[in-house]
Amino acid sequence: MAIHTAPVPAPDMAAREAARRRLDQLAKPVGSLGILEDLAVWLAGCQRRCPPTVPQRVRAVVLAGDHGVARYGVSAYPREVTAAMVRAFVDGTAAATVLARQHQVELQIYDLGVDDDLDGVPEPLTRYKVRRSSGPLQLEDALTPADAEQAYQAGESIARELLADDAELIIIGDLGIGNTTPAACLIAAALGVGAEQVTGSGTGVRGAELAHKTDVIKAALDRVGDRAADPWQRLIAFGSADLVAAVAVMITTARAGVPILLDGLISVAEAITAEDLAPGTIAWCAAGHRSTEPGQQLALQKLGLRPILDASMRLGEGSGALAAVPLLRSAALLINRMSLLSDL
Ligand SMILES: O=C(O)c1ccc[n+]([C@@H]2O[C@H](COP(=O)([O-])O)[C@@H](O)[C@H]2O)c1
Ligand SMILES: Cc1cc2nc[nH]c2cc1C
């Protein structure tokens, strides 16, 4: 297996410290810009310069796929919505495409595993397709090892395209009915917690349906057992082509020294898995928002990531990260343009 999982080099400590010192000298009370100060420090470390430049070339990539478990009553919506939403992305009417246009972010969607041939959509979109849907994770491994490898390589290729285009900040969005179930499993396995702590309502399952979803996640965790201690086995057992590809995009991007803005449950599940595969990846990530999903909140807490927005969003698509882009750019602008208190 040719996965490059050596540790990822850390961002530049000296640039981080210089940014912290500069922020403390600006014309404001120390610490008064809150999380914007943390973001300026993070960007300085990632860019290896103080002050950091304002990220102009922000690129979002949305990875779409279907999930075998979606046939087992874990979502409030039918799986056909995934393919329909891919078409909305092509039309530019999905929430993420609207936000990306507003914030000058270039967005590309790829089908890694949608359960539809997507006839008529532009070719580049299906270029990296691995298969139609993953297997039902509570009954069998969601992917074959060969499919997982192919998906990982697809993610590396997608990252290389973004990096060749001089991306300064990357957002990885997700799309796929049922995907909050594998994401919850990945987080539970990474943190060693039970199904009850990571199961959320996803697209809106409540009451008995939510209890059923918890049981499905528990069954999946029980089926895989100790094998879930290994992050690559976790991806084969619970993942999907789109989730594996996203992990590869994160690791490849971090290794290239380009920062990543995380989104909701799925994005954070991918990041925590990426960190286990290639330690150090998380240092290149900031949290765009706090999703309403309990698994996402728990994982952010464990990773020590403080989300930029807390807006009760639970859409996915990269939407929470896209909504946070103006604040991240503001953080970089402030550390560049504010006067020093001593100069007043
Ligand atoms: O990002 C999140 O935190 C998030 C929370 C709930 C739902 N979603 C989105 O909704 C879909 C999965 O929800 P579900 O209920 O079908 O598992 C998928 O397309 C995700 O992008 C995303
Ligand atoms: C309509 C719809 C749009 C979505 N976008 C991401 N997940 C979604 C789930 C649904 C149901």
UniProtKB/TrEMBL annotation:
Reaction(s) catalysed by this chain, per the record, are:
5,6-dimethylbenzimidazole + nicotinate beta-D-ribonucleotide = alpha-ribazole 5'-phosphate + nicotinate + H(+)
One BP annotation, GO: cobalamin biosynthetic process
Name the keywords, alphabetized: Cobalamin biosynthesis, Glycosyltransferase, Transferase
Which pathway does UniProt place it in? Answer: Nucleoside biosynthesis; alpha-ribazole biosynthesis; alpha-ribazole from 5,6-dimethylbenzimidazole: step 1/2
According to the UniProt entry, what is the EC number of this protein?
Answer: 2.4.2.21
Please state which protein family the record places this protein in: Belongs to the CobT family.
The function of this protein is:
Catalyzes the synthesis of alpha-ribazole-5'-phosphate from nicotinate mononucleotide (NAMN) and 5,6-dimethylbenzimidazole (DMB).
Report what the protein is called: Nicotinate-nucleotide--dimethylbenzimidazole phosphoribosyltransferase
What is the organism field in this record? Microlunatus elymi
Gene designation: cobT
